[in-house]
Amino acid sequence: MSTIVDFVTVSTTGLESSPVAEALAGLRANEARYITNKYGTPFTVSTPDEDPETLRWVTGILHDERGIVIESPALEVSGFEADGIRFGYVFYASGLAINVMYTPADGGKRAVGFKLSLGMDVPAELSAFKFARQRSKLAGEIRGSYFVIKGEH
Hints:
Helix content: 10-25%
Number of helices: 2
Strand content: 25-35%
Distance between the termini: 26 Å
Largest sheet: 6 strands, antiparallel
Radius of gyration: 14 Å
């Protein structure tokens, strides 16, 4: 059953098994606020069992584009379309959040973003990336990186 993420009252529901559940909940709320304010659509999450297609799509892009396989188990996913852009989010037990922004039209935005929750180390599979820091009222400090998608997905 999908759940709308409340970015006013941050909750760890669905993320309890993460050792950085509070920070990951803040990161998830930060993403929910961005999507809701920018695209006017509520940010909903589901378990990977409820939405295996979004998990397959995101993990397939990571593997095909960069040979990346995330070792941590996925706790929640979110897949939706807004303003002609397909989005996929995966929140992992380690505290990692990955988002894919993919515009099917030629010349559109196509990128994968990585965000690390406060308190988590950079996973070995992402050690080649440089992470910039940003402050968030909801998530504390977020470290982020990204790459541009070259192929068709």
